[in-house]
Amino acid sequence: MSVTEARVPARQVAALALPALGVLAAEPLYVLVDTAVVGHLGALPLAGLALGGVVLTQIAAQMTFLSYGTTARASRLHGAGRRQDAVEEGVQATWLALAAGLVVLVLGQLFAGPICRVLAGGGEVADAAVSWLRIALFGAPFILVTMAGNGWMRGVQDTRKPLRYVLVGNALSAVLCPILVHPVGWGLEGSAVANVVAQVLSAGLFFRALFAEHVPLKPRPALMREQLGMGRDLVLRGLAFQACFISAASVAARTSIEAVGAHQVVLQLWTFLALVLDSLAIAAQSLVGAALGASQRERAKSLAWQVTGYGLVFGIGLGVVFAALAGVLPKVFTTDAGVLAEIPHAWWFFVALQPIAGVVFALDGVLLGAGDAAFMRTATLLSAALGFLPLIWASLAFGWGLTGIWTGLAAFMVLRMIAVVWRTRSGQWAVVGAIRT
């Protein structure tokens, strides 16, 4: 196969990436709206949302195999011409999502208080976080069902329906949030209720899509065990992220209420742009998996570098835009003078990291689409242990504040970039077949 034949038309990448962008951006965009609404209640509710939101997000992050692992497996089967088998991966992932979601809900109610008090060191911030988290946890099973639904639908290269499903839920929630927080007077808890409404509605639409496929819905323990095999590596990878971002929130909370509020604003913008950049990775996951499933190794390798180029250009553009917005955008989220004074300590790291993030997230998508989960696990664990975590806790010990926390994030991203570029160049990830062995 020639280089020209191996290249994937840009319009094919865009046809998957643009709807995926909407799906990926919808949740953090809702959280940004939530942050702006709660931010006008004052620094304490904003800090409570920051801490509670990090806990819930990191719980969900442990289950990323429901989306990424399902896409990797379903896309290979789809590329091999086995669509029904690809959809059945989604059925089993949905059963796993329901089971895991119920466990998260029960354990979360039991341990929400102790977890938040440990992270915040007790006090008002911990109390505010617990009041938000106990309500938001009722959405956990539905968050996981939505992740599984996105996983199998991306695998069969349908990213348009998931976009509609997620937008419907989050649009309703975005309307409810300011109403429940302010006129109804529920305050911080009102934002949690609106969040649950969004998750229930979106998950219901994914259930309907699965029923419409007319595939067997019976649980298949053997297939679920196979999914959990890849899930183990992705869970360990997720633990590295969890340790890093919960540590960052904890150190910020122990610095000052203003610092944790500022960290929440910049971190939510970071999360939003990370998922914007990750839209290319979603396209790469689907296309790389399909190419490897169809035994088109050179096409998969060519696509990897195409997506890397797109990610780099995209990241540079985002960095320029948010550098220009430095004096304006933070004021949308809060009017608290103390929080606004802290934001610049994180803002310029956030801006400078966008090109690096563009490369890292694109190649993450390539390697995850290939099912190279074991390498991704090891690379992320080492990057966290050598980069992010030492600098975060040094920030607490030496009083470096947000500057130290975001220096840790920068080190983490640079180490990850080195790892994924090296792995992609090696070609060892490009294993062909309907199922990676």
UniProtKB/TrEMBL annotation:
List the membrane topology term(s): Multi-pass membrane protein
GO terms assigned for molecular function: antiporter activity; xenobiotic transmembrane transporter activity
GO CC terms in record: plasma membrane
**Keyword Transmembrane helix belongs to the record:** yes
Residues spanning the membrane: 49-69, 90-112, 132-153, 165-186, 192-213, 234-257, 269-295, 307-326, 346-367, 379-398, 404-422
Write down the Pfam families for this protein, in alphabetical order.
Answer: MatE
Q: What is this protein called?
A: MATE family efflux transporter
